[in-house]
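Cast an eye over this sequence plus tokens and explain the fold to me:
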Amino acid sequence: MSSLSPLLANVGLPAIFNNHMVLQQNADVVIWGWGKAQEPISVTTSWNQQAVKTVTSPNGHWKVTVKTPAAGGPYSVTVQGYNTIVLEDVLIGEVWLVSGQSNMEWSARAGIDNAEEAVKGADYPNIRFFNVLHRTADAPQLDLGGEWQASTPETMIDFSAIAYFFGRELHQELDVPIGLINSSWGGTPAEVWMAPEVITSDPGLAEAAKKIAPMEWAPHEPGKTYHAMLAPLIPFRIAGVLWYQGETNTAAPQSYERLFPALIKQWRSEWGYEFPFYYAQIAPFTYGRPQEGVLLRDAQRKSLVVPNTGMVVINDIGNTKDIHPRNKLDVGKRFANIALNKTYGRKNLPVSGPLYREMKTEGNKIRLYFDHAEKGLMVKGKNLTHFEVAGEDQKFVPAKAKVDGNTIVVSAPGVKKPKAVRFAWSNTAEPNLFNTEGLPASSFRTDDWPISLQ
């Protein structure tokens, strides 16, 4: 890689810049590294043979911005200072960062449906993986562990299965190289993926962070993985982020409604642009306290108010006895459909199942209106399940619900003046409401009455 011996070499690059990498197409891409103070630096790309020049700062840091063309490759990138580094087999395409806890980290080797078939078919030379190694730090780091690899059965088996299936769908639909950066760690709360000052500056978030119990298999203190596994990637140009996390934050689910948007805001602020941020709603599971899981899911649903976000609902492909559902293919496909529709303009692909929008009282009934139900609603089974209604006493009872066009009418014999509806309001609910595009409805509640988890 270098034309001089390590003892004489001065110019260095972070691990994210290496052979086999993918750079974002049609973008201003920042490339950075280190060298001796005032060392002249020249970066030349083979796609245009233009040299971009700078000088290393007094602190030994340099960066340049190069313009990338439309998707293609392989290319080379040459970095020249007192020594020369040549990066080979560089592709230009779409780059996505995926992050979260164990369900995002989960690999075919760990166990997924139809693993053998998926691994066997994973030869995609133009899909590239960068798996960030587990590290923690008390302050932002300059570099991280990991390397770029092409997708093969040998590399795919240990990479994020959801990310792979997502990337495969994008690659086949867009016909461009795909770069996937996986920075995930099982068991981590959202707080560890954020700059700690975001938590400490908000008394409510700081108090909620104290409820995250220490674990043997993952860090729990704010900032620990952000400093070591995310900060060194900034500002590597990405098309967007996929996020699958939340199970650990059921310890303080109601604070997630502020915590999660704060995370999105901070990441976008650090990168300097409003990239798409798509996330999975956690699956049904038998959590310890009766409503902690569904409250977390509802906080995720409410986070859709953040611009340029999208949510994958998976209450139809979960496993109430296993916090790691093994159907990762459909999760990856649903992520891909959101990205293909919202980021890449494939408007024929479905973005979401029904999402509650508003309610109207009609005598002793309530009519519910939904987004993503324009083509109609569908019931899998004879009757709609998991609806509850309450009157002024705030006591919810099972309700009868029926589809009326793209709305639902809910009522209960003992509730003459209904005030609120809840749907799929339990940790383990596996409801049967879908839109005609086959995607499930998210749990929701129309009220904001206080809920105690004691």
Summary: Residues 170 and 336 are 6 Å apart (CA to CA). The chain has three domains: 22-91, 93-342, 355-445. The domain at 93-342 is CATH 3.40.50.1110 (Rossmann fold).
